[in-house]
């Protein structure tokens, strides 16, 4: 059991990363209005800015933190990050201005950039034959955290808008204490390397684009798809409060249902869908299903119906693994690392742009007297992005190197 405790610590660290994100989503509309005043649409604009600032720092500092762990070790980087994360949540719990919240989100984005270090630690302590299994468990950790986070955050909101932040701080402190006692250092002088800023360039992955000409179209599809799907975390709390007057508890419950459905779809259902439709057919079905789901959410006016639709909309999440499968087949065996680096960077860029676009759209169609009142406007935008994806996918060059058997499964 003692030998497994470091693994348990890393697993809990990744779970807490996701919980920390999901925990605060249900209360953000009320918290922003509490410290800054204004209408819900104005709060949504600030919400988009806060999410984007978090994503920008995570994108910029991910490679930096990873390279720092190669130089100074995994243990100090992770423990310091957890300590700063706990302090950051405490600052958010007592913040009395929107600017202090913004600073806290900037710092939080840096501390959340430790995923690369956590995964490097798992690689250090795993036997070669166990690495794939252990990395899979780490992926599950994020899914579990995002399911638990909104549910806890929504429930704690009954005790005030600051309660979820205090809970997140306490969890971070407890995990820090666990790590202090059980986490060994795995970076030895044999593998330690000097920190060089050129290795910490977050845009470095994009340099490999010209080496992967066969996947450029699919990477564009991936970007538009991720951009569309961000409508859920970016606007859901504001949309449901504006249209259905949902309290944070109901927002948290619905997000937990959505997260659970995502785990089921990408962890289990995709294994059934791919043999039936093949990778290409799964992507096509996913684009069409998502377009319909976004349209329904944009126009539905029944609170009960939207709660039923929430987990069902996750069925469209089959697109991501199917699209990644196609891209992986298009790339050479010695290009797989480069491809995953680009995919990760593109997702990060989408998470930087998406919240701003979606929240600005929500604000425009709920505040502007010159535009029709439509709280579901961000979902209309996501539906249009799905239509763009479908058009790009169907008009791809037919001289693709993918064989018929590859696309049809």
Mind explaining what this structure looks like?
The protein is mainly α. The chain folds into two domains: 1-184, Up-down Bundle (Growth Hormone, Chain: A), CATH 1.20.1250; 203-409, MFS general substrate transporter like domains (Growth Hormone, Chain: A, Up-down Bundle), CATH 1.20.1250.20. Helices cover 76% and strands 0% of the residues. It contains 16 helices and no strands. It has helices at residues 5-24, 28-36, 40-72, 74-94, 98-111, 115-125, 131-156, 163-182, 216-229, 231-244, 248-299, 303-312, 319-330, 336-367, 377-394, 404-408. Helix 1 (5-24) packs parallel to helix 7 (131-156), helix 3 packs parallel to helix 5 (98-111) and helix 11 packs across helix 13 (319-330). The longest helix is centred in the C-terminal third of the chain and has 52 residues, at 248-299. The two termini are 42 Å apart. Residues 400-409 have low confidence and may be disordered.
Features:
Growth Hormone, Chain: A; 409 residues; 2 domains; disordered C terminus; 16 helices; mainly alpha
